[in-house]
Automatic annotation (TrEMBL):
Alphabetical list of PROSITE patterns matching this protein: PDZ
Lineage, top ranks: Bacteria, Bacillati, Bacillota, Clostridia, Eubacteriales
Gene Ontology terms: cellular component: outer membrane-bounded periplasmic space
Family in the record: Belongs to the peptidase S41A family.
Residues in PDZ domain copies: 108-176
Residues passing through the membrane, by range: 20-41
The name this protein goes by in its record: Carboxyl-terminal processing protease
Organism: Fonticella tunisiensis
Length: 409
């Protein structure tokens, strides 16, 4: 958030300055007037408000009262800007949705960087699991992946500071920093226990699509996340493999935490035939449907997924499964079936709010449930413990996908 130099009282002079109290009340009243809800009635020079409006103003009056108490009694100097930002964060956090958050200026810039460019950090995507911070997936070739962090790890501490899902922004901020500097994570891994890892931060460049031709002219494309360049990169990679005589495709969405909805649906449109890709339903029940045209891949397709495949990955894999356009192979996906929208507050800050639930073409919601693959197969334990050093011959999921494609070409 852009800082405001509003002060409350100048006690040494006994004069009242322009205060945060006045600013907040002015904003509230202005908003009410704008909405046309305050009813002016010239009764003895006063104005009347409805019961709902009176309750609304009283709720914020309580906030101002608490601010007065803290500012007038707390032993140390109070930073009013931090108090206001904390109040806004608390108000949004009270919704109880870990994906609905207030983003200050730095947090908003970080989020925009994640979908458009590069940033300095360790390279992990994290989410909320039962109130704890869980690694959805490490970014490919990132310091986190090289250090052995894997999907499902629980982050307990960052630089010896306890963190939880309620402090997601704090944890993410602590993990970011200048390239070349170190950060210490305390992790819990099921079946292993608690351990500490020191990771050196680096500049994370977001290359989201990688492709190659395997034996027997089987194409392989891995998508690590969906940003604004992913769809065009996928198209170029796909066309390049087709030009080399690709007879079937393996699409790897493992440990892909999602990203932009439009990016995943554009890729779905390149793969599927004509029909519904996904539908979203907002709080009023309004449904929006995104459809694909009649053009399709028309090649044998296998899709690799796991517990780190979330959100936009599940939109794409769910559509492929419902269309019966390919075979899903791996383990159950993460289960994030809600859509967020980012609302710019035009001062450098923003609110990210859950606006809708999404449904696969068959009408299924995967929120908290995930998608079960057509063929459920796990990786060997030795591979799971060292995911950053996996060899193709040890990747049982990839080998099953190759087997499926070979049987269809």
């Amino acid at each position: 958030m852009a800082e405001k130099n509003d002060s409350f009282y100048d006690k040494t002079r006994g004069k009242k300055k322009l205060s945060i109290r006045n600013v907040i009340i002015l904003i509230l009243i202005t908003n009410l007037i704008t909405a046309g809800v305050i009813l002016y009635a010239p009764i003895a020079g006063r104005r009347t408000v409805s019961a709902d409006e009176y309750k609304f103003l009283n709720q914020f009056k309580k906030m101002i009262t608490v601010k007065d108490i803290v500012e007038n009694n707390y032993i140390n100097k109070v930073d009013e800007n931090k108090m206001v930002e904390g109040a806004i964060k608390g108000m949004v956090d009270a919704v109880g949705d870990p994906y609905t958050v207030f983003l200050n200026q730095k947090e908003y810039q970080d989020l925009m960087t994640q979908t458009t460019g590069s940033y300095a950090g360790i390279g992990t995507y994290v989410g909320d699991k039962e109130g704890r911070i869980v690694v959805i997936a490490p970014i490919e070739d990132s310091p986190a992946e090289k250090a052995g962090i894997k999907s499902g790890d629980i982050i307990l501490k960052v630089n010896d500071q306890d963190v939880s899902a309620k402090e997601m922004d704090k944890a993410v901020s602590l993990m970011k920093g200048k390239p070349g500097t170190a950060v210490k994570l305390t992790l819990y891994r099921e079946g292993v226990g608690t351990k500490e890892i020191s990771i050196t931060r680096a500049t994370i460049t977001m290359k989201t699509v990688k492709g190659e031709m395997l034996k027997d002219n089987i194409g392989y494309i891995r998508i690590t996340q969906f940003d604004e360049n992913t769809a065009s990169s996928f198209r170029n990679t796909l066309n390049g493999l087709k030009a080399k005589g690709m007879k079937g495709l393996i699409l790897d969405l493992r440990d892909n935490p999602g990203g932009l909805l439009v990016s995943s649906t554009e890729i779905a449109d390149m793969i599927l035939g004509e029909g519904k890709i996904v539908s979203t339903v907002d709080k009023s029940g309004k449904e929006e449907v995104i459809k694909s045209d009649q053009n399709k891949l028309d090649l044998p397709l296998a899709v690799l997924v796991n517990g780190g495949s979330a959100s936009a990955s599940e939109i794409l894999s769910g559509a492929i499964k419902d269309f019966k356009a390919g075979t899903l192979i791996g383990t159950k996906t993460f289960g994030k079936g809600i859509v967020q929208n980012i609302i710019d507050l035009h001062d450098g800050s923003a609110v990210k709010v859950t606006m809708a639930k999404y449904y696969t073409p068959s009408g299924a919601s995967i929120q908290g449930v995930g998608i079960t693959p057509d063929i459920v197969i796990d990786l060997p334990e030795k591979v799971k413990q060292n995911p950053g050093d996996i060899k193709p011959e040890d990747d049982t999921q990839l080998q099953k996908a190759i087997e499926i494609i070979k049987s269809k070409i």
